[in-house]
Amino acid sequence: MAQQNMEKRNETELNKLPVCAAEFIKLVIKKMRYRKKVRQDVQAELTAHFEDELRDCATDEEREQKAKQLIEDFGDAKLLGALLRRAKKRCRPLWRTVVARAFQTIGVLILCLIIYVTWFLTGKPVVSVDYLTLLNQMSKPQVQGEDNAWPRYEKAIALFVEPDKSLKEIPAFKNYRGVVHQQFDKLTEAEQLEIRKWVEQNTAAWQEFVAASSKSYCYREYQYDPNAKGELWSIRLPHLSAWQNLTRVGFWRAQIQTDSNQPKQAIEDFLVIARASSHWQGKVNLVEQYFGIFVSSLAHQEMLDIVGTIELSPAELKQLQQQLLQIYPQGYPLMQVEAGRVSFMDRVQHAFTEGGPGGGHLVPRKLQEIESYISGGREQKINVFYCTVASFAHARRDETVAKANEIYDRMNSRAKMSPYERHISDSCSEDAMISTLPKYKFRLLEMLVPAVDRASEMAYRGRAWYQATVTILVLKQWRLEKNEYPARLDELVTAGYLKEIPDDPYSDKPLIYKKVDGDFVLYSVGFDFEDDGGQVYRDDKGRAKLWTDEGEGDAVFWPVQK
After folding, report:
1. Which of 12, 94, 130, 443 is surrounded by the fewest CB atoms within 10 Å?
2. pLDDT at 227
3. Sign of the C-alpha dihedral, residues 108, 111, 116, 119?
4. Which long-range contacts (CB under 8 A, 24 or more apart) does 503-509 make?
């Protein structure tokens, strides 16, 4: 109210002046560009100044002339307004100056923040490297041509007959592991008939599978999922499920042959599965490698199960040994993890901008896509605000790539170490390494780096199964030829029966061999790294667990554990 009264009073006093003076004062006040209260004060001061100078003028003409002279003396209105503004600023209290500067600074910072956030949110990834081609080059063997097994696998997959609903409902058929050590004669007659019928329907597919397994390598070019966005995490692996179904045919064929008193034919089928498994162990993709190791180990277990129930001649044992050795002429392959690095770098180029501070930043909507993918593709809303804040907190591109390379270098090194060597080393696992990183700063590493330590351990276990199988065949051959088992495994090497003594992945010694009552025991000390005298761990139902972290016990390869 007081301010309004002041405005009216100033306006009234201004109107008493000559028009030229009033217009000049208004122009000066306009050019000041300052706070309203200050402008009102200046207007009142200028008005009072003109009134004092014009008080002695007798006529309006004289007042007009005097006002023009005063305006001329004042000079340019714009310059006068600027000078008055500066004068008022110099005269204002210190606290008001501090507050004004603070608000100006805050305003500038807010403007900069708005510009930065707009730039950050509108950033787009730059895809510059064709990592799919690089992955295919890594997977492609040197020797090519008619030795490629993939065309025959494709034919086998095309010929495969899916099990019908009734067959899928058979408990022993549901689980892939269910076929292992399954006693076919324990199934009901109806169940046996269903399985026999399905195996017979897949005779043509199995023949192609056998032909494929005899090839020296398998090369299938990786391809993107056409429904995805051209990223390595979307490469298609539909063949694995189909290939798994074909190996299931082989396992049940062997069970039927064993039940029909044809154990040697069953061993041949397991050899086919072991050869086929080696094709996937040679891949660079971790999923394919893991699957190859898993199926290969099952095949070796089944072979030993049959070898324990029949008598093979020394020549047959030696032939079987040679067939196993031919599967891995360069030795049993361990886990390869370099493709994981390639996949992560491809993820980086699809999720980060390129250039700018730190080499680029994580795009919020890309983090949102990754979070949704990691959640299992479930219909679940990932909070946009969370992803935006997390992207701001995440390390920039250069730092992310550097840290990823550091972790993958560590993983490459640890993949070449046995479980025992990792156990006694000071080298921490990738999980432990990631867990020590600042929260949210390396969120992508936390989500996308695979648990290679566990996969690598599976590879060492697979190698132990393979080497144990070969060693057991040699031991049986030795007994048939010399009427007793050797006192130590190194006798097999000295006599040329075996190239080397198999290592125990869970100790710094070979697999443990002991002669026991005309037979022998061959075992690894197992997950607890302690020798339990060849006693296998059994669960509360009496089932043997060869590789388990549930309690004490050794991984016993022979005698075969039921």
Report:
1. 94
2. 72
3. negative
4. 503/418, 503/464, 503/467, 504/420, 504/464, 505/418, 505/419, 505/420, 505/457, 505/460, 505/461, 505/463, 505/464, 506/418, 506/419, 506/420, 506/423, 506/555, 507/420, 507/531, 508/420
Q: Are strands 519-524 and 512-516 parallel, antiparallel or unpaired?
A: antiparallel
- Residue 178's pLDDT band, with cuts at 50, 70 and 90, is very low
Model confidence over 394-416: pLDDT tens digits? Answer: 999 999 999 999 999 988 888 89
Helix then strand then coil, in percent of the chain rounded to 5, is 65, 5, 30
CA distance readout (Å), 367 to 39, 125, 352, 431: 53, 12, 9, 21
Contacts of 302 by beta carbon, 8 Å cutoff, 6+ apart: 180, 181, 251, 254, 266, 270
Q: pLDDT per residue over 115-129, tens digit each? A: 766 767 777 887 888
Backbone angles phi, psi at 457, to 5 degrees: -65, -40
Q: What single DSSP character describes residue 352?
A: B
Question: What is the three-class DSSP state of 44?
Answer: helix
Query: At residue 182, what are phi and psi to the nearest 5 degrees?
Result: -80, 130
- Is 514 strand, coil or helix? strand
Tokens representing residue 530 in the block: 């302690």
Terminal Cα distance for the chain, rounded: 99
Report, as an integer, the average pLDDT of 49-77: 80
- Residues 6 or more apart whose CB falls under 8 angstroms from that of 386 comprise none
* Cα–Cα distance for residue pair 393/257, rounded to 1 Å: 62
Concatenate the DSSP letters of all residues of 379-436 into one string. S-PPPHHHHHHHHHHSPPHHHHHHHHHHHHHHHHHHHTS-HHHHHHSSPPPHHHHHHT
pLDDT band at 523 (very low <50, low <70, confident <90, very high): very high
| Cα–Cα distance, 289 to 280 (Å, whole number) | 6
In the chain, what are the domain boundaries? 2-92, 141-218+237-336, 340-449
Q: How confident is the model at residue 214 (pLDDT cuts 50, 70, 90)?
A: very high
In order of 212, 292, 377, 481, 552, the CA distances from 147 in angstroms are 9, 19, 39, 38, 46
Q: Rounded mean pLDDT of 465-491?
A: 95
- Give me the pLDDT at residue 376, please: 63
Report yes or no: 492 and 519 within 8 Å, Cβ to Cβ: no
Query: What's the maximum distance between 2 C-alpha atoms anywhere in the chain?
Result: 149
Flag whether the pTM goes above 0.90.
no
What is the average per-residue pLDDT within 26-52?
77
Contact by Cβ (8 Å): 125, 352: yes
d(CA 468, CA 332): 12
Query: How are beta strands 512-516 and 555-558 bridged, if at all?
Result: unpaired
State how beta strands 544-545 and 537-538 pair. Answer: antiparallel
Per DSSP, 501 falls in state P
Q: How many CB atoms lie within 10 A of CB 78?
A: 13
Residue in the block written with tokens 């007009």: 64
User: Which three-class secondary structure state does DSSP give residue 287?
Assistant: helix
Range with the poorest average pLDDT among 252-261, 308-317, 382-391: 382-391
Distance CA 431, CA 446 (A): 8
